[in-house]
Amino acid sequence: MNSCDLELSIKDRLLFSNFLPQQGGFLEMTIAIDIKDKVNITQEEAKELNIKSEGNSTTWGKEKNCVFCFTEAEKQLIKSELKKKDNAKQITVDLYDLAFKITNW
Hints:
Layout: E1 5-8, H1 10-15, H2 26-39, H3 43-48, E2 52-54, E3 57-59, E4 66-69, H4 72-87, H5 93-103
Antiparallel strand pairs: 1-4, 2-3
Helix pairs in contact: 2-4
């Protein structure tokens, strides 16, 4: 794997938007949307993996890890948002594994 590569599970991909800004300048939001589009689960994948949402929970039938290559700007934005969440003490148990993975990336 290259330094731009990050392997993400289905759960990681579902939680990934937690490490993207919800608002910001035009360039920052363009990068965030590019990241979101890159890691989003497609309709085809959702069908293949039997992903279902009921109430506040999401389940899937089988695990599938994918490797994504991020640009340096994307990587910096993701790490910056993680740092903000960490400083604000907003890392939850659900986010811990993904936060750990990003920290060590």
